[in-house]
From TrEMBL:
Residues 192-245 have a biased composition (Basic and acidic residues). The lineage of its organism: Eukaryota, Haptista, Haptophyta, Prymnesiophyceae, Prymnesiales. Residues 166-191 have a biased composition (Acidic residues). Residues 159-277 are annotated as: Disordered. It comes from the Eukaryota. This is RWD domain-containing protein.
Length: 277
């Protein structure tokens, strides 16, 4: 029994090392304290998945998926999932449930001999980025935006629509009914205005993100040029200014004559033929 448990721990450790090796800083690990009865369990493996290129039309920059393993017996499926992103809580819960369902299906199909399938599930989460964000279709709103090249494209924001307010029940006393305003449902016009406001806010946020991304790329480009030349930005600017000054300098007078002065050189003229000696 002890040997089987040791082998199971070793296999789990190998899977954890594999995902850490593949994704590096995207992976965060947690485990129980050494003095815990079931140490090192429970173990969690979290991957912070940045938005893939194929999902660039969606305004969600990253998705965090945390896989929990609470026991070593794979057959019992002692696993659970947490998911978080800048999306409504209801969608986060649906994403976690969807990933858990997929994980359990893989574990059942492959059997205990295939291990915990950590790497496969985390890779699938990235490939299913759009699928996970669109699990709740009523949260998706489309608007016209721009891509990183400035081209107009359809973009999508994820937001939970407002819930219609139920009509308030009649108060028993007239005094309470006078003090409290009765609640009402939003009209279609009001709902549309709120939807347009959310779209506007999403478009403004996307424009701000693109502006900051452009500034970041410009800063990186300047920094790279400086490193290639081995000089600082200040020195680059100084050289540029000096070069501009040199380019605008005008020649005010011609070159001085360099005619040979024989007398100054100490030569004397020959009286017979006029030659210098």
């Amino acid at each position: 029994m002890a040997e089987e448990e040791a082998a199971a721990k070793k296999a789990l450790q190998a899977e954890v090392v594999a995902v850490k090796t593949r994704w590096g800083d995207e992976i965060k690990l947690t485990k129980a304290k050494p003095d815990a009865p079931s140490a090192p369990l429970p173990v969690s493996v979290t991957r912070l998945i940045s938005r893939p290129a194929f999902a660039s039309a969606y305004n969600v920059d990253e998705l965090k998926v945390k896989l929990w393993i609470e026991a070593l017996d794979v057959a019992r499926l002692p696993v659970r999932v947490e998911a978080s992103a800048l999306v409504p809580l209801k969608l986060q819960e649906r994403i976690a449930a969807h990933v858990l369902e997929r994980w359990q299906q893989e574990l059942r199909a492959r059997g205990s001999g295939a291990g915990w399938m950590l790497e496969k599930i985390l890779a699938w989460c990235e490939a299913a980025f759009v699928e996970l964000l669109t699990l709740e279709p009523t949260f998706i709103e489309m608007y016209d935006g721009c891509d990183d090249n400035g081209m107009t494209i359809r973009r999508f924001t994820i937001a939970e629509p407002p819930e219609p307010k139920e009509e308030a029940e009649e108060e028993e006393s007239e005094e309470e009914s006078e003090e409290e305003e009765p609640q009402r449902e939003f009209t279609e016009e009001e709902i549309e205005k709120m939807r347009q406001l959310r779209i506007k806010e999403a478009a403004e946020a996307e424009a701000d993100r693109q502006w900051r991304e452009e500034r970041r790329r410009e800063a990186e480009k300047l920094g790279e040029e400086g490193r290639q030349q081995g000089i600082s930005k200040k020195e680059q600017q100084k050289q540029k200014e000096e070069k501009n000054k040199q380019g605008t300098r005008l020649r005010k007078q011609g070159a001085k004559s360099n005619k040979f002065d024989a007398e100054a050189a100490g030569k004397k003229a020959n009286k017979k033929n006029g030659l210098l000696h």
